[in-house]
Design brief:
- The chain is of the alpha/beta class.
- It has 3 domains: about 220 residues, FAD/NAD(P)-binding domain (3-Layer(bba) Sandwich); about 110 residues, FAD/NAD(P)-binding domain (3-Layer(bba) Sandwich); about 100 residues, Enolase-like, domain 1, CATH 3.30.390.
- Helices cover about 30% and strands about 25% of the residues.
- It contains 14 helices and 22 strands.
- Strand 12 and strand 13 form a beta hairpin.
Amino acid sequence: MPDDNFDLIVIGAGPGGYTAAIRASQLGMKVALVEKRNTLGGVCLNEGCIPSKALLDSSELFALARDGYAHHGITFEGLKFDLAQMMARKEEVVNKLAEGIAYLIKRNRIQRFQGSGKLAGARRDGLQVVSVTSADSPAIPHLIIGKRVLLATGCHPVELPQLPFDGEQVVSSREALSFSKVPKHLLIIGAGYIGLELGSLWNRLGAKVTIVETLPTFLPHADGQVAEALLRSLTRQGIRFLFDAKVVSTEPTQGSIKVGIEAAGTSKELQCDRILVSIGRIPETEGLGLSEAGVRLDGKGRAAVDEDFQTSTPGIFAIGDLIAGPLLAHKAMEEGVVCAERMAGQASLVEYDFIPSVTYTMPEVASVGKTEEQLKEYTIPYVIGRFSFSANGRARCMDDAEGFVKILAHKDTGKVLGVHIFGPHASELISEAVTVITYGGSAEDIALTFHAHPTLSEVLKEAALDSQHRAIHA
């Protein structure tokens, strides 16, 4: 017999799905959560955001111990790293957070079903039916019935037809976070934030890293000055970039791969032992029964939704990587909350113009709002405020003073239009900028606000002052 009387059935327990389930339960709904993994948290927690940051932090500590502490009067003898222990620590971080999510699901009285969920049609009374197929009993799906279904199944890596994943030599980001040894030469196809972060990670641990990108530069949606500064920094760190380039041939050899590359009209050959393909990700829609349910997809295979996140089929909703917008966990989480609240009759909104983005290289890149290139394209009058971390006392004390903050403000009103940070702890500093820009604040608002001394946040204040030609420490 099917389980019924659910107000909401959520398929997918990643950041968007579990967040939506919790918020819906808080609002008094009876919620079912379907997840095919035996752990919650989705790609972000299990093979993306969290494990990558755990390893990035470990690699940064090693690089600092190796290269960055002598200036502080601290030297090490016989320094080495234990990759197996790094991986074990990564798994420990993931497991503890997964346990925390499982506790939240239980505490919020959400009924959990493990297995692959699929839309199984609507009953005559309008209730939605979801079939759940588990690995233990694939021939006998379990049926769940509820008023609404929310699809939050995330995305998966794009595979190159001529270079399919084999899990060993040609890998996705999932396998690149679990290497048992440091690659001798890691070739990365794609210079997006995933390629840059994982390239930084393995470069710091001793791998030779080459990144191949079909575009003439990387991070095309980032502010141009920030992208240029990051490129210079990563190149100094030893990462090699080939732009306007593509892989045209591969030939497996003894324990390695011979790769033919065309770059800027010339042909090259590289020998590598691992290839990471990070050319993008696509929505996880296979097996959901979307076409049978009448759910319309756009030209990029994403579900088309209205302001309530409802698809073309009444009673079926979608959020996160399944719909338009950047593939970011915090975007999915916000959509999950807002979707649940709109189901409850609240007039909640997702402020898409103010979604921050972060690239966790070293130094980090973080931004919110418009870039200078976009303001020029839209012919919006603007002024620039810029201040370098090299003139900041806290950054100097940390011996981590590379980078700058760039504030773009409207020329006439001073309203903040965009903030771009390249430097230490940019991922944390961007939150102040998100708050100001979301509430329509001005550069003067930042300039007039107390910022404790000495802190990195003073660079934001000085950049705001600089937009008014009032910077004190420039």
